[in-house]
Design brief:
By secondary structure, the chain is mostly helical. It is built from 4 helices and no strands. The radius of gyration is 18 Å and the shape is elongated.
Length: 113
């Protein structure tokens, strides 16, 4: 049997898929809350306290990390492959884009915790 080279694409595609799914599910809700309800004062003080308590719980921090990290992976993966579609081949582009996504993930992890 031939030695087959292992690809690093499955974990990256997992992060890409998670990022686009999370973006599609959570971003409309976040836009509604942050873009409309909060500026127009439609959320009372009790609602703001509940949002604050949720974000400061461990479950809220996990969701916040997912909403921050996965869409960045999805976006950088899309940019990386979009450049290839336009025949723009940067040397080491995979390391650049996935390195930036990893760096952002680490920074977001320490900022949230």
């Amino acid at each position: 049997m031939k030695d087959q080279k292992r690809s690093n694409e499955p974990p990256v595609w997992l992060m890409f898929g998670a990022g686009t799914s999370i973006s599609a599910i959570f971003f409309p809700v976040l836009i509604l809350i942050v873009g409309f309800l909060l500026p127009f004062g439609l959320i009372n003080e009790n609602g703001l306290r509940n949002i604050y308590l949720f974000i400061n719980s461990w479950w809220g921090q996990v969701i916040l990390l997912a909403v921050l990290i996965f869409p960045v992976w999805g976006a950088l993966h899309r940019i990386h492959h979009g450049l290839h579609d336009f025949k723009i081949h940067l040397p080491g582009s995979a390391a650049i884009f996935y390195g930036l996504a990893t760096l952002f993930s680490i920074l977001a992890f320490f900022a949230v915790l």
